[in-house]
Amino acid sequence: MLIRRPSDISPSEITPRRCYEGRREFIKLAAAGSVLGAAGLFARGAAAQEKTLGLQKLASVAKSALSTGEPPTAYKHVTSYNNYYEFGTEKDDPARYASRLKLRPWTVAVEGEVMKPRSFGIEELLKFPLEERVYRLRCVEAWSMVIPWIGFEFNRLARLVEPTSKAKFVEFVTALQPETMPGVRLPVLDWPYVEGLRIDEAMHPLTILCVGLYGEVLPNQNGAPVRLVVPWKYGFKSAKSIVRIRFVERQPKIAWEKANPSEYGFYSNVNPNVDHPRWSQSRERRIPDFFARRPTVIFNGYGERVAGLYAGMDLKKLY
Amino acid sequence: MQPSPKTIAALKAAVFALALVPLGELAAGALFFPDWLGANPGEFIDRATGRWTLRLLLITLCVTPLRAITGWNWLLRFRRMLGLFTFFYGVMHLSSYVTFRRVFDAEEIARDIVERPFMTVGFAALVLMIPLAATSTNAMVRRVGARRWQMLHRLVYLIAPLGVLHYWFMVKRDITQPAIYAAILAVLLGYRIVAGLAAAPSARKVSTGQTV
Ligand code: HEM
Q1: Which domain holds residue B15?
Q2: Of the four, A76, A305, B13, B113, which is 20 to 30 A from B127 by CA?
Q3: Is ipTM over 0.85?
Q4: B135 domain residue, yes or no
């Protein structure tokens, strides 16, 4: 049997010349394309530390052991891809319109089942000892970010007003400024946006009142001047631009629950095992990845610290 | 107005190129200009391809009324291309979902389609487009027969409402956008109903003429 060595067969014997030349051209182009593409993808990932909006800097911010070591999401993404329906339902609406938000004067009334109701001017809130908390944020829409928030534990503020034994829940009422908020013209949600937590959730050390991110005060689209951050719950639980905090006996009706009780529950803990009726919660896209390749972790990875709050509760029923 | 064959060929080339612009933009954004696609590029592609599928579908449905109103029969010669581009963007939309959103997880995809009405409806719309795309060539029209071909292609009157419904079900709260598409579709389908009713007596005459 005659076996020709591979080098004996020239490509031209098998494939017409025009064809294989064209093919080589194509392979070169494809290779060049994928190299450039890979470079582009790499550049996306590497962009984490960069220019901010240059807002007022927050001084003497302590680090926290509760921060994650994961690389923070780029400032430009954190501040351009937002859900803040008062300014519109598209992700870029808040960045476009929230600059109109009227920030001064700003006070937060703290009232209800407390011994010492009072209100706090934003200047007073900025004087609480501030910490940086780098937290994962998981949106109910199956994307996630890592954000270096700045704020202080909610329980510090709560202690100043002395909640009574009747304070079982905390309700957070957010700003409603029809003159600056184009989104509230439509009854998309029952304005003003109201959120709530059980008292033990609110008092948990991970729950913060947040006044800044990336070393500066909060950009308006992220909920300036003061918002809640509850990292083990879907993002909408972290109410933005808070104007009133009420300690109450009954579980508050929260905005999304009112809008659609079969899709959004009071607790809304991050949970890969409880799907949203219209999409699976088992994975997430870490901004700015193309692929939803990250498995979602129960309580957004904070289970070690918070799972105890829900001992004995059926999280499938109380979603 | 009857453009020359040359003008029509040029127009066709222009429409072809225009229909590729959205895809080109997405490809360029994905490969070279990340800022174009924003913070969530996978979702951006999902949504852009979904919207273009629906837009092209509605544009395709404009051809018949426009032709009737203007009397420009040559407009008909663009319908096949527009329909095929609709299908093409539909396939891109599905591919985007399968790769970026579900990362080829067949079980999840099956569950989505079975359990989530908005997905079921979108999937049905795309599947129903397959026979239309498959019978788009002249040879296929001849093989199927003009009458049956026309019957088959009436499926588009089901596909388009399914597409709008898919969008409507998907939206979390603010239904403005799907409502706009629904209104345009209502006009396009409404026109056909009205025109059909107006033409009904003569149509009957024609059809008896054919059977005899
Ligand atoms: C197998 C078929 C299909 C699948 C799996 C599918 C999947 C999806 C998914 C997952 C979304 C959500 C995107 C998001 O939340 O950001 C979406 C949106 C959408 N889809 Fe589909 N779809 C299919 C077929 C279709 C068809 C046939 C049409 C049009 C006729 C269509 C039009 C749309 C539109 C307009 C949107 C909304 C885009 C936007 O947010 O502006 N889809 N689709």
Answers
A1: 5-198
A2: B13
A3: no
A4: yes
